[in-house]
Amino acid sequence: MNSTATQHPGSVTVIGLGPMGRAMAGALLDRGYGVTVWNRTASRADDLVARGAVLAPSPADAIAANEVAILSLTDYVAVRAVLEPAAQALRDKVLLNLTSATPEEARAGARWAAGYGAVQLTGGVNSSPSGIGQPDSATLYSGPREAFDRHRPVLEALTGRVEHQGEDPGLAALSYQLGMVIFWTSMLSFWQAVALARANGLKAADILPYATETADSLAQFFAFYAERIDAGVHEGDVDRLAMGVASAEHVLHTHTEAGVDSTLPAAVVDLFRRGMEAGHAGDSFSSLVELLAKPADPTDPGTDGRVREDGLSLR
Ligand SMILES: NC(=O)c1ccc[n+]([C@@H]2O[C@H](COP(=O)([O-])OP(=O)(O)OC[C@H]3O[C@@H](n4cnc5c(N)ncnc54)[C@H](OP(=O)(O)O)[C@@H]3O)[C@@H](O)[C@H]2O)c1
Questions:
Q1: Do 36 and 112 fall into the same domain?
Q2: pTM for this structure?
Q3: 73, 75, 102, 137: residue to mutate for ligand 1 pocket, most atoms within 8 A of CB
Q4: Residue span of the structural domain in which 51 resides
Q5: Which runs of consecutive H residues, i.e. helices, occur in 69-137?
């Protein structure tokens, strides 16, 4: 820690001042931390500097300033672009990497940092910028437990709830992506419903109560099907895929009737039909899990899970 540690609860570096990084630096300043910041576009630091943050002239200076550096960047391509020229400043530092990544990218990033004597704690923040600094917001971490325990007050300044999932730096990235697959597809389903409603003269606000009721009901569906899926049960006793495909087609045709983009409902129908072709017509639509657990086209190696030598995912 630097010499300001006696006056502040501590001092922390924040690299990356997008909406998340700015909220994090702000939350730390609110709690009396000394904050050093660096951002590619320096002007994004103006408000924070006005509140007492120190703008470092380079990533290396920012990292050298404090033991802990929060990384809040768009992706690991950005992380590498920022850290590589600063590699010599990394010895004995703790990188709190809150940048979205695949599990393999997070593991490779941790290995790369370890090569320069730094420790990476990977974090998946389950909050929007407005939740940063709030007691109910949560972040899942993985990586060295010792670093998590030692810097817990900093972590709790960012989100009130924190959990250490294990030593594997990829675990928190995996948990984050598991949340995001649900978040992105669910939000997209809402945009889709709004587009369909709009084509029928309705506003988002008009459908909000019904959309909310549907969204709220999902938790009980998750719980019901999770138990059966884990037990390998896809019995068609409460729903059948044959019913599901007919329903999904009604959704698709309502879109084509309204003249709106039907990419998403068509993809749903495609999955349901593939389930039928795989012989699951009489099973529950949960049987689609078995389909989704394999690549759509087994002859296409794709790029899933493959990582370049420098640890970045092939896209
Ligand atoms: N926003 C959310 O609601 C949310 C919620 C949970 C998690 N996250 C995750 O948190 C991370 C940060 O989120 P955000 O919304 O603040 O992201 P963002 O808007 O993408 O901004 C992140 C920062 O990355 C910097 N950056 C991007 N490419 C760079 C490069 N090649 N070299 C140097 N800097 C580069 C940007 O610098 P410039 O200012 O110069 O462009 C910016 O400061 C992301 O990984 C995101 O997935 C976001």
A1: yes
A2: 0.89
A3: 73
A4: 3-168
A5: 76-83, 103-115
